[in-house]
Amino acid sequence: MDLLAGIFTDYTLRNVALGAALLGLVGGVLGSFATLRRQSLLGDVLAHAALPGICLAFLLTGTKAPLILLLGAGLAGWLASLLMLAILRSTRLPEDSTLGVILSGFFGFGIGLLTFIQHSGDSDQAGLDKFIFGQAATVVGEDVLTMAVLGGVALLLVGLLYKEFKLLTFDPAFASSLGLPVRGLGTLLTSLTVIAVMIGLQTVGVVLMAAMLIAPAAAARQWTNRLSTMVWLSAAFGVLSGVLGAVISATRENLPTGPLVVLTASLITLFSLLLAPERGLVWDWRRTRNNRRRIRLERLLLDAHVLYNHAELTPESLAQRRRAAPARAKEELEELAARGWVTGRGERWELTEQGHAEAHRLEQAMRVLPKALNPRAEGGAGGAA
Amino acid sequence: MSSDFVIVLTAIFVSTASALLGSFLVLRRMALMADAISHAVLPGIVLAFWVSGGERATAPALLGAAAAGLLTVTLVEWLTRTGRIKNDAAIGLVFPALFSLGVLAVSLYFRNVHLDLDAVLYGEIAYAPFNTLEAFGLNLGPESLWIMGGLTLVNLLFVLLFYKELKLSTFDAGLAAALGFLPAVLHYALMSLVSLTAVGAFQSVGAILIVAFLIIPPATAYLLTQRLPVMIALAVLVGAVSSVLGYVLAILLDASIAGMMATVAGLLFGLAWLFSPVGGVLTARNRRERQRREFAARLLLAHLAHHDRPVPAREVLEEFGWSPAFLAQAQQWAQREGLLAGDPNGLRLTARGAALAGERP
Amino acid sequence: MIKSSINEQASALPRRAAPLEVRDLTVAYHEKPVLWDVDLSIPEGQLCAIVGPNGAGKSTLIKAVLGLIPKASGTVQFFGQPLEAARRRIGYVPQRSSVDWDFPTNALDVVLMGLYGRLGWFRRPGKAEREAAMHALEQVGLTAFAHRQIAQLSGGQQQRVFLARALAQASDLYFMDEPFAGVDAVTEAAILQVMRELKKQGKTVVVVHHDLETVRDYFDHLTLLNVQVIASGPLEQTFTPENLKATYGERMSVGVGR
User: Fold this and answer.
1) Residue predicted with more confidence, A356 or B313
2) Which residues of chain C lie closer than 8 angstroms to B322, CB-CB?
3) Which residue intervals define the domain ABC transporter in the entry (chain C) (predicted)?
């Protein structure tokens, strides 16, 4: 509680938390569109490509004003995305390799520039490297304001063009047939992603930026089947990760904010993947296990049914029929008994009334099975006009 | 050995070891998996560092990193298989999480020890000559040279021994499996070697820039040739050239050696993109210009075939919206081929031209 | 030859401009022609099939006509107007496989997208649009599935959602790209019923089709395409063994003279 209260009283913590929350908000919203457009790693490329932009902006202007550096970062990221498109259009190089080349080439150049600046003895330069891993503690009020303005513009545009972005993401060919400028809208969406990256540079840095565009969106997708809900949830998860990461990092010295924000977002994603209603993997596993168990029991009952009708039902005969050890067969009979399908003890077992009925039902079901598997007979799952 | 020589030789080993594996990564569309692995080795190194009691020990570091690399590959593949997350998003989820764990551990427990984050970024290849390997009281020379030389040898042997299998499983995994070549085993072996190479290179060029060596030279070679053996050889060459030129540039500018090597590699890629004889942008533009002319000439023939009389150039320009210069080029080509007759009243087909226009393209 | 006689008729009679008039259309991928010098006139109020072998450029024709891919030459007019002026009168059903059905949205939402063109920039769909979309879903028999996430629909149902989206466009001319590909019998019947209903309302439907067996039962007008137009005109005149042989090559063995 003291910690959370710190957000309102502690000036540094407030700025850090605000910066991280803004990143989570904007990253969550734009990440939703990026992941659905299968451009998840675009953010990673844009972020790595931002480093030389920051260095060049400093070299050319000699200032460390956040807006100037961020503009340099944004321009470099934007340039990288254009270069990427040009390479993809003009060569047969696979997309992932193209991303890798742009990412590591720009980043290597950025490292070269950064070390060049550091070694040039300019005492003003200290702190440029904070953009690599992020150094949230250096976020001051002015930075938060810059981020808020940038993020506000990006969110406003998403709000205005939500319907168009949605259609562009789902079905670009149809969007184009309606007369929407598909290419322009795509470039705009990429540019807005550049803005999200600019906001994140100081907090989580270029290396970890990808996660803030992917994790909240991937988590949100698990909870809903509606895009609007997904965007809101993704934003909420992003903000939550930002604030929690900032607060946790304030509990101890030497706890860097960026990695904590990213880890919080990753944990939220893991939790959603496993436990979200409907899509959660745990439910899947449970369903599969129950199904397997049910099918095994049903086949067991049918075996017992055959033996009881045509021979005698004993652990030995069941073991023989199922090619299992007698001890195992005894356990299986107990399992059937637990369901009320057989009764007996030791060597003498018989099917109950309920067991007979169930076995009969199963046999009937198996007889109609071939018909149900025929797609022509049933048609689609739904009735048509 | 002079220290310059040691540094450049180490760099060439790094780039060669990477290019050998990277060629297959590019062809198998696993470039971004390499990116993920290179980030994810950090927690593996940290863990090994912790296990060995804060000493920088090579063997545990290699093992830890290989384990972390395989963990990354397994996690990404598992996430993709669940069908809840697309492959690229899975990569982008796994490596930042693992890298964050690594950074967190470094800042918490190993602050100002031998591991610092700058080294993670761009390595300390400049120190390569000074970390020497000693055994049995003998000074065996720079340690990084031994590590990277050894890894280069291992990777070379791997590619040579399993060349046929690698090639087949890269182009047709299904067939490779049917023939009993175990593509999955090969896949994990390749991924393990990528992890080992990433951690071996970690000391010299850093975890992140290793991606530049794994991807850029093979991608450059990919633009220059369509034959696998040539591609691998060219990738090694591009890597070596980047190493030497990058080192020279770094000395001149007093900048990070690894950073400048990656920069040079990127520039070489740019050159290949523009000027490659097979599909370079400028080469292709010239060829396209020629094709466009020929194509326009065929369009022109088809149009003229509808008319029995000579068609004035003005009409053609209106019909196709071409510039007069472009029409002149197309006309010139068709006349040279003997498809178009010189007629003062306009454009008219020769008998050969009419025959060609009647054919299906 | 049939083509030219019909064109002459069209120019002889003063009448309303055809829903689709294509002249000299050529489309090339990397300078390799995919469509060559295509002339096509689609008559109003008919069900028209475009048929041809794989790689004949059937889908390319629709995409080029709708401006989704650039054309190397040629003009396209809809109801005597260029594409931009006629956009609101054109509906489009893309191939089902062209989108990711795991997208987080439901059937009703997809159908609503058909109304985005009419809504224009910035405006969001409201109650009136929702009702129109529900009506379109009703026409394809999917009212009960309006709020179902689209991944949970069967392939045939997904195809019908796309059809409903085009219906919501309330157009005069519809393009459908392989609507019958890989759908169940119920869906096939539903699509056919919708097409016939559209015809009754005087609308024109152009369908890329691959099943020669059903051409005769489903359509009034046929265009045989293999890079070039082989034949185009009323079904009785164009659906001949000679034309099919010219389109598909010698190995064609579908009984035409049933």
Assistant:
1) A356
2) none
3) 20-252
Residues of chain B neighbouring A133 (CB-CB closer than 8 A):
103, 117
pLDDT(B76) > 60? yes
Nearest to B84 by CA among A238, A381, A217: A217
Q: Using the beta-carbon criterion (under 8 Å), do B86 and A38 form an inter-chain contact?
A: yes
Residues 6+ apart with CB under 8 A from A160: C122
Range of the domain at A250: 2-279
Interface confidence (ipTM) of the complex:
0.86
Tokens of A269: 């994603």
For C2-44, what is each residue's pLDDT tens digit? 444 444 444 444 457 889 999 888 888 766 778 888 889 999 9
Name the H helices within chain A: 2-9, 11-36, 42-61, 66-90, 95-119, 130-133, 141-160, 162-170, 172-177, 182-200, 205-223, 227-249, 257-275, 281-310, 315-322, 326-338, 353-372, 375-378
In B, minimum Cα distance to A101 occurs at B216
**pLDDT < 50: residue spans in chain A:** 371-385
Which ranges of A276-352 would DSSP assign to H, the alpha helix? 281-310, 315-322, 326-338
The label of the residue with tokens 């395989």 reads: B70
Alpha carbon B177 to chain centroid, angstroms: 26
| Distance of alpha carbon C113 from alpha carbon A138, whole angstroms | 46
Question: Residue C227: which of B288, B295, B360 has the nearest Cβ?
Answer: B360
Give residues 316 to 375 of A whose Cβ lies within 8 Å of B.
none
Phi/psi at B268 (5° precision): -60, -40
Give me the residue from C113, C154, C190 closest to A174, CB to CB: C113
pLDDT digits (tens, 9 = 90+) for A298-355: 888 888 888 888 888 888 888 888 888 888 888 888 888 888 888 887 778 888 888 8
Confidence of residue B130 (pLDDT cuts 50, 70, 90): low
- The count of domains in chain A is 2
Residue A295 half-sphere exposure, CB side, CA atoms within 13 Å? 7
Helix axes A95-119, A42-61, angle to 10 degrees: 30
Please tell me the CATH code under which domain B281-358 is placed.
Answer: 1.10.10.10
CATH number, domain B3-275 = 1.10.3470.10
Considering Cα of B183, then B187, then B192, then B193, what sign does the dihedral take?
positive
* pLDDT top residue among A176 and B322: A176
SS3 state of residue A63: coil
Together in a domain, A229 and A317: no
Q: How far apart are CA A38 and CA A41, in angstroms?
A: 8
Q: What is the pLDDT of residue A129?
A: 76
Q: Look up the CATH number of domain C20-248.
A: 3.40.50.300
